[in-house]
Amino acid sequence: MILASHGIIASQILSTDPDWLAYYNRVVTAGGSLSTTEQNATKTLVADLKSAGIWSAMKAIYPMVGASAAACAQNLKSASFTGTFTSGWTFASTGATPNGSSAYMDTGFIPTSNGLAYNENHISLYSRTNISGATYDIGSAGNILSTQLYTLFLRRTGDNAAYDTGAFPTNRAAFTNTNSQGFYLGNSNSTNAQYWKNGISQITITPSSSSISNVSAYVGGMNEANVNKFYSTREVAFASFGLSLTNTQASNFYTAVQAFQTTLSRNV
């Protein structure tokens, strides 16, 4: 159940939550700022993720609020993995948009160094843009042979969407997608790997034993052996990395993120 629906109980927790306060202080210290609406939205998001049992699985959460690189680079979950934006981004109250030719955010998050494996991970991104193209949207690959992947793309040329959790093609969960807007979640556990869109599982596969990426994950493209490839032009309104979720948690994750976007009047 989403905590924010509990009225005064939720508000009491929100006003004192130390994780949210630490995040807010990081934004301000970095030179960023959050509007009152953005403060309340991120407070509620923290409470909702905790209520749903999702918070503990998170390694990095980028709410993409504050309309600046300083604010959008901050990890809601902890002081680790502060992003570094290259030039070529546009920041607005609706999110952060890369230019498709030079822009990406280096998160500093290395999957294999932070407890992730081909059968123990999630990766997510909220896109506000519907466009097709030869792009990746988030993640990294440890080499150029496509055997150490941890990536999502939302709508490549030919209307394909895919989540990679290890070696291609055996560990790719793919489906046909004609609209790249919405909330995308790749999730792999000891049972299966699934690619979710807007809280609904689109495809389930059984991945085989494999390595996933051992280099930093990027947003706005894909880090392939420490070189950004497949630049995106989709506006990013949320992104996360972490451990695997249950099916119920995956569904509740969408509910929490969509409520967050709706509060900010940027939901799609």
Task: Describe the protein.
It is a single chain. With 268 residues, this protein is an alpha+beta fold. Helix content is 22%, strand content 30%. The two termini are 23 Å apart.
Indicate the topology.
Elements: H1 8-16, H2 18-29, H3 36-51, E1 58-62, H4 69-72, E2 84-85, E3 89-92, E4 95-98, E5 105-106, E6 121-127, E7 138-141, E8 149-156, E9 160-166, E10 172-176, E11 182-188, E12 193-197, E13 200-205, E14 218-219, E15 222-224, E16 227-229, E17 236-242, H5 247-263
Parallel strand pairs: 7-15
Antiparallel strand pairs: 1-17, 2-5, 3-4, 5-14, 6-11, 6-17, 7-8, 7-14, 8-9, 9-10, 11-12, 12-13, 15-16
Which geometry do the CA atoms define?
A: globular
Please report the distance between the alpha carbons of the first and last residues. Answer: 23 Å
Mean pLDDT: 94
Name the helix and strand elements from N-terminus to C-terminus, one letter apiece: HHHEHEEEEEEEEEEEEEEEEH
- The proportion of residues forming helix, as a percent range, comes to 10-25%
Oligomer: single chain
> What structural category characterises the helix and strand content?
alpha+beta
Can you tell me the residue ranges where pLDDT is under 50 for at least 5 consecutive residues? 1-13
Number of domains: 1
User: Could you give a short account of the major beta sheet?
Assistant: 9 strands, mixed
What's the β-strand tally?
17
Annotated CATH architecture = Sandwich
- Beta-strand fraction estimate: 25-35%
The Cα radius of gyration reads 17 Å
Kindly provide the name of the CATH class.
Mainly Beta
Number of H- or I-type helical stretches = 5
The CATH topology corresponds to: Jelly Rolls
